[in-house]
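Reproducibility note. Readers wishing to regenerate the assembly model reported in the main text can use the exact inputs given here. Chain order matters: entities are listed in the order in which they were concatenated for prediction.
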Amino acid sequence: MAQVSSTVGEQVPTLLSASKSILLRISKFNPELDESSKFMEFTVSYEKWTTVLEAILDVKKHFDHSVAVRYSCRQATCGSCGMLINGKPRLACFTKISELDSDVVTVEPMNNFPVIRDLTVGFEKLFDTHQKIKPYVIRDDTELESDQREFLQSPKEVEQYIQFANCIKCGLCNSACPTMATDSSFVGPQALAQAYRYVADSRDKGKDTRLNIIDESHGIWRCHFAGSCSQVCPKGVDPAMGIQFLRGYLLGFRN
Amino acid sequence: MTKDEHREGIKGMANPGRYGIERIAYLLMRLSGLGLLGYFIAHIYETSNILRGRMGWDDFLAMTQTTEGHIFLALVIGMCVFHTGNGIRIMLGHGGVGVGKPARPDYPYEPASQNYRHKIGIYSSIVFAAVAMMYGMAVMFGE
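Running the prediction on these inputs yields the following structure tokens for the assembly.
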């Protein structure tokens, strides 16, 4: 706690800098060299606005430059810095240390993704399943006639899918999903939510195509509505809602 | 499962501590489902004892009249009531009923699908199961 002099000469304790420190435990693992992961511990000072990503970069800068972490935008837009923070999937750039309310912060690579090194995981399967559900507007008339305006939508039509268009493909939902924990073939909440995003889009005509893709044993029927995907989503996408709506289409409750 | 897949496995699937009451309900649903499946198999075996005649049937039925038998049946009652109540909640959710409406999300992004209706459904199922177990034990031990 710093102190500052007031104008009348008294010593008034004022919280200029609430710098505290935490023990940052970083999982270190190189699949090509190591048999198992181990933790390296660093004492890192932080302010109330310091994010976990900033603390990790502080460690890289001052203590161990070999820590592997993927990041880019630092503002929860690129979806690169997903990791387990104190056991829960979160974006490191979107998680303040002060919010964790713990003197020990443990960071590990996300579950259900292959580890490339340390905190960095491979997204190949996530992108494969994302592409599998055809994440684009499907129409026969892709070329616009000259006298037409672009595919217009009412605000109500936009509301049906805009929430699901917020997905940044960070993979936190797939990491939290209990089905993904045991089923390597499951398409996953990220891809299913994106399937709903396009099915609910009034411009799209590919509903039946997408429903056929996800209507398989390792597709939508493997979701058991645990809801963990929605709880960890940093953008408010709520994949569990989209998946149940999709299932509603397949069960005939929705048109 | 290869090491580089880094999957949590059964341990991670069954860990209810990180994601609130919905994940606890998910675990209880699995456990009660397995328990009821076990009871169903045991029940088929039990009723097949009628082929051993009245003596064999009475001998086997006497097992349920012990303290352990009463506790076992009370657990079956609890599992049955929870699985039914929570199952109805999940089936409605699977049809898109009660999971909220799509809308532009506002920070801090409370998921609409995890709303109070579902939480009430989960807590009600747990409470009904506990009450049914207590009633069952009162009847069985009060004989």
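We highlight two features of this model. Confidence is low (pLDDT under 50) at residues 1-16 of chain A. Chain A is about 30% helix and 15% strand.
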